[in-house]
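The following record pairs a protein chain with its ligand, pyridoxal-5'-phosphate.
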Amino acid sequence: MSGINAFEHGGNLYAKMRETGGGFSEILDFSANINPLGISDKIRQTLHESLESIIHYPDAQGYALKNAINQHYRVDSASITIGNGAVELMYILCHMLAPKRVLVTAPTFSEYERAARASGANIEYFYLDERDSFEIDIEKLMKRFTDIDVIFICNPNNPTGTLLTNKQLEKLLEVAKIQNTYVVIDESFIDFLPNADTYTCRHLLTQYENLIILHSLTKFYAIPGLRLGFSLASPRITMMLHAGKDPWNVNTLAQNAGVIALSDNDYQQLSQDYVAEAKLELYNKLLTIKNLKPYLPSVNFILINIKETAMTAKQLRNVMEKHNILIRDCSNYPGLSSEYIRVAVKHKEQNRILIDTLKRLLGGI
Ligand SMILES: Cc1ncc(COP(=O)(O)O)c(C=O)c1O
């Protein structure tokens, strides 16, 4: 798949609303992986209270937000760059590093490839094997580092949900360091994991100058329309990112929302507990639908092989859309095909509607 379609994300919510003339509430969007609990009351209140302050420029230093990130994730403030979503930082990073050869796993989140291509890089794929449940074989991956300037690793990986422990990643960082390869680890879904400490590489930042961590705050805090993310890196890379970005890239509402969100332990715990339960419930119900092969989820989305249904992902997406349900057709992911879809884990009642609709279309087992 090439051209602009290669970078389409989930079902297009806005196009669907234009078509039906309806609003957000009439569409069940399983194509974007957003915390099903929605925005917290605290964020809502902060947004209201912050409205007056938008007559001023935002804090270009992001002082309070960096402090909040420093407190919550126990990282040095000097390693933080705040972004208008994690995706903005992917583009700035690629622009500033100007890599010639970039390695991405396939399948993975498409914006790594898009950002790298936009800065003139050639892309190489490390294909993951369905027969290994798309697990990343790090021994094989490390053998591909020669002459690679940057490798992107998504952990947990979107759309497969596979995970690498920080012990595995440290081995990889060691080899990459010798080969002068930057390792960009996208931990955007890591907050959903109750045992994130086993997987995060934050504590390795001081040891590996070739490590860059990306972290979206839009998934876990359900604010993709507000845009907020950050990166963690060595002081040298951090200075470079600051030199390459708009000084006011993160607006005041997003900065204030981030400060409140990161201190909201109740919401964080509730979200982890809810998603942990809902994802297993959804997974188990998907197993009861004829000819679907869901992959065991690690976080708030589930990859499903639909080959045995004899429908393509596009056909199933179109039929589901007629029921006002959007799912992710995965056929434009390098490394996947028209045999795969992905669904988000949403509220339990919404998940039941998804299951009932799929069951009516495909049958039970
Ligand atoms: C792995 C991954 N990283 C980052 C993003 C986007 O993050 P943001 O909304 O902060 O730009 C996504 C969105 O789907 C994603 O899947």
